Amino acid sequence: MALKKKPVTGMKDILPAEMEIRDYVIRLIKETYSGFGFSSIETPCVEHIENLSSKQGGENEKLIFKILKRGEKLKLESAESEADLVDGGLRYDLTVPLSRYYANHANELPSPFKALQMGNVWRADRPQRGRYRQFMQCDIDILGEPSNLAEIELILATTTLLGRLDFKNFTIRINDRRILKAMAAYSGFEEESFDTVFIILDKMDKIGMDGVRQELEKEGFAKESIDKYLDLFEKTTRDAAGVRWLKEALAGYLDPAYADGLELIMDSVDAVKTADFRIAFDPTLVRGMSYYTGPIFEISMDEYGGSVGGGGRYDEMIGKFTGNNVCACGFSIGFERIIMLLMERGFKVPGAERKKALLIEKNMPADGMKKVLAIARDERAKGAQVTIAVMKKNKKFQKDQLKAEGYEEIQEFFADRM
C-alpha cells in the first residue's frame, strides 16, 4: 500500500511563508501580553478523560479525540463499556487544563495569577474555512480576581494586540450569562429549559428573530413567553443605555450590580482603548461553554464574517477540582483565523531581517567556496539572513523563487572571477 502524502483530514502542513507570519505573531503576543503582566505557562496536550467529560465544555465534549489505555491496562477482551478502554483524550481547549493546572499549583502561584497559554488543541469537528481539527489557541486568563478589573484588563490586552496587527473597525460584543438567565426567567421560561432556549437564541445571527420564534414554538414553549422574550430583544439597544434599560425592565429578576458591572466594563474599555474598535452590548450573545458564570465576550470581524475570539468569567470551574471556587476569567483569540486573515491580506512581517542569497557555480573550487562562506559569515554578523545555493540551469526561475521567498538581494559568484 502506498504511503499517503497529504495530512490527515482537518489538519494541515505549514509552509515557510505562513510560518514566518506565525512566528512573528507569537512573538508579538508574548511581548504585548507580558506588558500587561501575564506569565507564560504550559500544560500537557493530553488530559484525563474525566476532566474533559465533566459537562463543562458544552458541545466540544462530543468532539474529543479519545486515547486508549496502554499496555496491560488495555483489556479489549473483557471491556464492557468505553470507560474500560479510554482514560485520556487530547485537550479540546486550554481552559480545562488551566483549571487543573491552577488547582494543582495554587500554593506556588501569586494571587491573582495572570496566565498566558499557547498551544495546539484538537476537536473532531467538520473542517471548513478557518476551522481545523488541530489548531493553535492563545488564551490569557486572570485567576483570583473577583472584580471587573479582570474583564477590563483582558479586553484591553486582547484589543491592543489586534491593533498592533493592524486590525481595525472590529467589535467586542459583550453580555452576561446572568442577564441571559434573568431575561428567560422574566419571560416565564422554567430554569430547566434555559439551556434549550439559549441554544436556539445562539442561532439569532443565522436565522434571525423569526427563525428563533419558530424554533421556540417547535419546542412547545408558550406563545406568551416567546412574545415577552423576543420583545425584550427588540427594545434593547446595543450600547450601555441598553444595559440600563434592561436593569429597569428586569427588576426583581436581575441583581442591579450585574448590569452596573457590565456598564463599568464597557465605559472603562472605551475610555482608555488604544485600538480602533467598538464595544457593544449584545443580549443575544450566549457562548457555547456551560462553564461561564458572568460576563462573556466575543470579537466580531467583518472581514472574516464571524467570531475570531471570545471568552468570559468562569468562577465555578476550578472548584470542580478543589471543592473551593476561585474567581476566574479568560479571553482566547482565534489564532488560526487571525493568521488566515493576515495571509489573505498579503501581510508582510515588519522589520524582518534583510535576506540575501549567494549563488555559486556548481564546481566552485575550495578557495572560492571559503571566500563565499566568509562573505556569508560577515553578512550574518550584520544581522542579515543569508542563504547559499548552487546555481541551477534555469537561473531566472531560481531567482524568481528566491525573490518570492523574500530574497531581494541576490549575488552571483563564478569560479573564474574569485
Automatic annotation (TrEMBL):
Q: Name one GO cellular component term.
A: cytoplasm
Matching entries from Pfam families are given as:
tRNA-synt_His
Q: What SUPFAM superfamilies does the record tag this protein with? A: Class II aaRS and biotin synthetases (SSF55681)
Q: Does the keyword Magnesium apply?
A: no
The coding gene here is hisS
Q: Where does L-histidine bind?
A: D93, L94, T95, R123, Q137, D141, R287, Y291, Y292
Species this protein is from? Candidatus Pullilachnospira stercoravium
UniProt GO MF annotations: ATP binding; catalytic activity, acting on a protein; histidine-tRNA ligase activity; transferase activity
Q: Residue ranges of the Aminoacyl-transfer RNA synthetases class-II family profile domain?
A: 10-350
CDD domains in alphabetical order: HisRS-like_core (cd00773)
Entry protein name: Histidine--tRNA ligase
> What is the catalytic activity of this protein?
tRNA(His) + L-histidine + ATP = L-histidyl-tRNA(His) + AMP + diphosphate + H(+)
Q: Does the keyword Ligase apply?
A: yes
Q: Taxonomic lineage of this organism?
A: Bacteria, Bacillati, Bacillota, Clostridia, Lachnospirales
Give GO BP annotations, semicolon-separated.
histidyl-tRNA aminoacylation
Q: Return the EC number.
A: 6.1.1.21
The entry sums up its family as follows: Belongs to the class-II aminoacyl-tRNA synthetase family.
Q: Which UniProt keywords apply?
A: ATP-binding, Ligase, Nucleotide-binding, Protein biosynthesis
